[in-house]
Amino acid sequence: MSDQAYTRSEIEAAGNALPTRGVLCSRCGATIPSFRDLAPEEEQKLLELISREPLRAIKILREITGCSIAWGELWVSHGGQPHDEFHGTVPCPHCGRPLRSSKARQCRFCKRDWHDPGNVRNLVEIPPLTSPEPPMLTSAAPQSLSPSEELVEWLVPLAGWLFLAGIAWLVAHSVIPALKVDDPRTIDAYAPSRAQLLLAVSPTLTPDMIRFDQRRAGNVVVYIESERFQSIPFPDREGFVRKAAHAWCSNLRGSQLQFLLVPTVRFRDVRSGDSLASYTCLDESWTSLQTPVR
């Protein structure tokens, strides 16, 4: 142990003042202190720690010697010994990069330590550069479903299709009755139904009092004067409309699709177009499909 080494009492008395005795660094001009309480094995551990965790090395040095932060930083930054005048000209025997001094026995770049020439160590363990094996993809065993779960799986798509079909039906039922028929041959095809309707409403209404407006899918608008319709006693109006609609619906010669769209007979005022009454062929369709009137 050097006679210039500081005791704990001397360090505490110096406070924040820089050390005045020690080894002079020819490169930076600082005085590097030595510590009486720093045993050689503890100094060796600190030298190994400097390259990896210098702040922790300062903390441990202060705990051992009681020095200030400035003293600890001075000692750690020099590795406990001054830098050579030609600092950096001494290469590391392992990587060739400059050491801190010619007496250094560890490299801050390649992290090799050769304080024991017969046991050169790597201060930082470098994990092997191997790519991790991808996880094995295992197919999960199929799980059997309970009867209720199977029923749900069957009903959910069915409900979706029924919902879409219902939307399509509502759109068709709203749009198709508004489409007029302009083809004379199609208009003539409904002549038997018009004749049956005229027969059903006579003698209350004569042919010259009625005007037909043929629509698609078996729908028809019957225009009459509102006063004529109002002249029918109110209790008899429903029967009048039902009789006229029955005559029309029972004589339709359409496809199954036509009846799915539910043809409707609508009575409207010939002057204003206001709706007077309407009757669908829903109740008549099955009879017409099974036993059509010829």
Account of the 3D structure:
This protein has helices at residues 8-14, 40-50, 54-65, 69-78, 147-175, 184-189, 191-201, 226-230, 234-249, 256-260, 282-290; strands at 23-24, 31-32, 112-113, 121-122, 211-214, 220-224, 264-269, 275-280. The protein is α+β, with helices and mostly antiparallel strands and 294 residues long. The protein has two domains: 8-122, no CATH class; 175-290, GMP Synthetase, Chain A, domain 3. The strands form three sheets. It has a four-stranded mixed sheet with strand order 5-6-7-8. A two-stranded antiparallel sheet has the order 1-2. A hairpin with a 5-residue loop joins strand 7 and strand 8 (275-280). Helix 2 (40-50) packs antiparallel against helix 3. Mean pLDDT is 80; it is low at 285-294.
Q: Can you summarize this structure?
A:
It contains eleven helices and eight strands. With 294 residues, the chain is of the alpha+beta class.
Fold blueprint:
Blueprint: H1 8-14, E1 23-24, E2 31-32, H2 40-50, H3 54-65, H4 69-78, E3 112-113, E4 121-122, H5 147-175, H6 184-189, H7 191-201, E5 211-214, E6 220-224, H8 226-230, H9 234-249, H10 256-260, E7 264-269, E8 275-280, H11 282-290
Parallel strand pairs: 6-7
Antiparallel strand pairs: 1-2, 3-4, 5-6, 7-8
Low-confidence stretches: 285-294
Report Rg. Answer: 54 Å
- Strand segment tally: 8
**Terminus-to-terminus distance:** 132 Å
How many domains comprise the coordinates?
2
CATH topology call of the largest domain:
GMP Synthetase, Chain A, domain 3
For the record, the CATH class of the largest domain is Alpha Beta
CATH architecture annotation name of the largest domain: 2-Layer Sandwich
H/E element order = HEEHHHEEHHHEEHHHEEH
Helix percent reads 40-55%
Mean pLDDT: 80
- Which outline best applies? rod-shaped
User: Which strand order do you get reading across the main beta sheet?
Assistant: 5-6-7-8
Can you count the helices? 11
Based on secondary structure, the structural category is alpha+beta
Give a quick account of the main beta sheet: strands, pairing sense, barrel closure: 4 strands, mixed
Strand content: 5-15%
